[in-house]
Amino acid sequence: MAVGKIIKSLSGFYYIEDHDVIYQCRGRGNFRKRKLTPLVGDWVEYESTNTTDGMVLAIHERRNALVRPPIANVDQALVTFAAKEPDFDTGLLDRFLVHIEAHGISPLICITKMDKVEASLNDKASINDYAGLYREIGYTVFLISGNEEQGLEEIVGYLDGKTTVLAGQSGVGKSSLLNRLRPELEIETGEISKALSRGKHTTRHVELLKVGGGFVADTPGFSSLDFQILDGDDLSRCFPEFQEVSHECKFRGCSHLNEPDCAVRARVESGDIAAHRYQHYKQFYQEISNRKKRY
Questions:
Q1: Residue-wise pLDDT tens digits, 32-75
Q2: Does 112 show up as a binding residue in the annotation?
Q3: What is the model's pTM?
C-alpha cells in the first residue's frame, strides 16, 4: 500500500501522483455505500501493480474541501479579476474573498489585463487605488499586464510548496495566466463575448497542474457564489478589517448593522473602512438572512 495525491478525476478514474509517477486508479467499491467521494487534492492510500490499474483504498482526513470546484486540501486561492473586459467588479471580488475566507483558505488577488486600462489614466488610477486599498486590508495583490513579465515571477514564488486554486470570473484570463506561468501547458483559452462581456468557459474539469514548485488547480469559471456554509454571525470574520476593530464594539457579537457604539460603522464613517466593502457586507448579510428564512 502506498500514499499519493489525487491530481485529476475524470470519467470514474482517479489519477494519483506519487514521487512524480502518475497512477490511474478506481475508487474502492464501498466508497459509494459509505457516501465517500475522493476529491482532487486528497491524500489517499492506494495499491497498484502498474500505472494503469490501481485502487484507491482510503482517504486521509481533509484540511478543507470546496464544493465548487470539488477540491480538497487547498492552501490558497489566486483570485483573478480583469481590470477591463470584463470590467473590474469589487462586489464579485468581495464575494469570492468571503467565500474563500470562510473555508480557511488564504486569498491572493491578481488583477490581469492592466494594459487594457493604460490608455485611460483615470481607469488605471482607479484600479491602482483599489489595489492599494486591498493591500492595506492585508491582501497580497498582483497587477499583471498582457504584454509584460513583471509580476509573474512574484506569483511563482507564492506558489512554491502550496496547493493553489485559480479562481475568478469567466473571461478574466485565468487560463492565459497559467499558460504564461508555464507555457508548455498550452491550455485552451476562450474569446470574450462582446455582447455579454463574459468569457466562454474553457476549463472542463478540475486538475492539479505543477507550476512553480507547487500545484495549481485550473477550475471552471463561474460568476456567482452563495453563502451556504456561512451564518450571519460568522460573516464579519471574513472581512479582516472588521475583525481588527470588532473588539471595540459595545456589544459582543455585534452584527455591525444597527447596534449603538459599533466600531466598524464608526470606521466606515471616518473613511478608515471602505464604504463599498461595508455595503457588500450588508448585502451579503441580507442574502444569508433571506436564505435562512426560505429554509
A1: 888 899 999 999 999 999 999 999 999 999 999 887 778 999 99
A2: yes
A3: 0.85
* CB-CB contact of 219 with 242 (8 Å): no
The annotation status of 169 as a binding-site residue, yes or no, is yes
Q: Is 67 annotated as a binding residue?
A: no
Ligand-binding annotation for 168, yes or no, is: yes
Answer yes or no: CATH 2.40.50.140 is held by domain 2-61. Answer: yes
Beta bridge partners of 198: 193
Which helix (H) or strand (E) element contains residue 56? strand 54-59
Residue 45 has, within 13 A of its CA and on its CB side, a CA count of 6
Q: What is the DSSP string of 242-289?
A: HHHHGGGSSSTT--SSS-SS-HHHHHHHHTSS-HHHHHHHHHHHHHHH
Q: Residues 103, 163: contact at Cβ < 8 Å?
A: no
Residues of the chain with CATH 2.40.50.140: 2-61
CATH fold of 232-294: Ribonucleotide Reductase Protein R1; domain 1 (1.10.40)
Is 173 labelled as part of a ligand binding site? yes
Determine phi and psi for 119, rounding to 5 degrees.
-70, -25
On whether 254 is known to bind a ligand per the annotation, the reply is yes
Give 234-293 pLDDT, tens digit per residue.
Answer: 999 999 999 999 999 999 999 999 999 999 999 999 999 999 999 999 999 999 998 766
Three-class SS of residue 98?
Answer: helix
Contact 143, 114 (CB under 8 A): yes
User: Is the preceding peptide bond at 38 cis, omega within 30 degrees of 0?
Assistant: no
- C-alpha distances in Å from residue 180, one per residue of 79, 204, 209: 16, 20, 13
